[in-house]
Amino acid sequence: MKLLIIGGGGREHSLAWRLSKSKKVKKIYAAPGNPGIAQIATCVSILASDIPGLARFAEEKKIDLTVVGPEAPLALGIVDEFTKRGLKIFGPNKNASRIEADKSFAREFMQRFGIPAPKFQVYETVSEAHKYTKTINKFPVVVKASGLAGGKGVFIVNTKNEYEKTIDEILVQHRLGEAGKRIVVEEFLTGQEASIFVLTDGIAISYLPSSQDHKRLYDRNRGPNTGGMGAYAPYPTNRRVSNIIEKVIIQPTILSLKDYGVHYKGVLYAGIIITSLGPKVLEFNCRFGDPEAQAILPLIDGDFLTPLLAVADGKLSEVQIKTKNLWSICVVLASAGYPQDYRIGEEIEFKSKLSTKTLLFHAGTKNEDSKLLTASGRVLNVVTMHENLKIAKQRAYDEIKKIHFKGMYYRKDIGNSGMKKMKRKRRK
């Protein structure tokens, strides 16, 4: 079979790597890809936003399955266009992608169908947004751009002044562009966060390993939100919490979407916070997480192409997904200044060879004059696995010592919360 992977980051590199293991796969293309993906696939210079160009390419190359990595092409309707042309594709259509692309729609959907979530308000103008401080006026509070902002549209504000500054930047200065035409102001919740991933063909549901993303820039969850600084998998939930997530959140969401006239096919990613009152949904996403995909895909045992095809064909109930009894750690190596202003074009050097057991996924790199250079805020993903989470973490950070580029920054506490959770379990 011939595959086309849409996107060019670490998530797409991990998808290409996982799918390349399938005996059914003869050829993989990636658009636009990156230097890491180029080691296992043929990269083509078509942007992920060029829906007609991607569809023409898929037709010309007789692609058997297209797998979409980022959310933007899904929100633009790539699945609708491919389906119209009779091209097989993995991912939700434009209507279904609203679960991520329009946060106000998602919150109203959850409220209507009783999916546990924070209390919220939706505002379109500054004068409307000021109503919050005149009525509820409770801090901290979470302010979100309603549209897609590349993981940079969420702000935790602690004071009235911060709130007013944030809504001015979004609604007046338009710093987030179209993504910030509306904002969602949400109740701030405390608890451990978990990323839950399921494949669904709109009826059947198959669970992938859970994960915990580390959104904040600095250790101990301090600093601004980013696209993600690392992840570990699986997230160690107890049976009671797992049952609530399955029976109160995931299953009702899939069924309610169907009742709402939305036939959801693809991967559904639920960002959950486990509060003292139980799990609640912080957000739904319509694609694999980044960097969670880099942590969970290595834990899939067997051919991962089969379930993706089953989703596209509406036959997921006929497939079983097996996972390895291992821990996985993914650490993001970022450029200095990320997620704000950061430099690119720094040479990436390897002081010594990485272990054959280590996976290195390229997130933002480019080749120039026979050198590998940084090309984005998030540059590389270092992934290691082991039966013991502590050892998996130690191996990841040992491997990072072999890599260098000017201004390289990474969190040093990825996986710590998982180890603390496991210690508490053992004490009980």
From TrEMBL:
Alphabetically ordered keywords of this record: ATP-binding, Ligase, Manganese, Metal-binding, Nucleotide-binding, Purine biosynthesis
Stretches that traverse the bilayer: none
Q: Please list the reactions this protein catalyses.
A: 5-phospho-beta-D-ribosylamine + glycine + ATP = N(1)-(5-phospho-beta-D-ribosyl)glycinamide + ADP + phosphate + H(+)
Question: Which Pfam families does the UniProt entry name for this protein?
Answer: GARS_A (PF01071), GARS_C (PF02843), GARS_N (PF02844)
The chain positions of domain ATP-grasp read 107-313
According to the UniProt entry, what is the EC number of this protein?
A: 6.3.4.13
**UniProt keyword Manganese present:** yes
Q: Which pathway does this chain act in? A: Purine metabolism; IMP biosynthesis via de novo pathway; N(1)-(5-phospho-D-ribosyl)glycinamide from 5-phospho-alpha-D-ribose 1-diphosphate: step 2/2
Cofactor needs: Mg(2+); Mn(2+)
GO biological process terms, semicolon-separated: 'de novo' IMP biosynthetic process; purine nucleobase biosynthetic process
Annotated GO MF terms: ATP binding; metal ion binding; phosphoribosylamine-glycine ligase activity
* Family named by the database record: Belongs to the GARS family.
Instruction: Output this protein's name.
Output: Phosphoribosylamine--glycine ligase
Q: Which organism is it from?
A: candidate division TA06 bacterium DG_78
- Lineage, broadest ranks: Bacteria, Bacteria division TA06
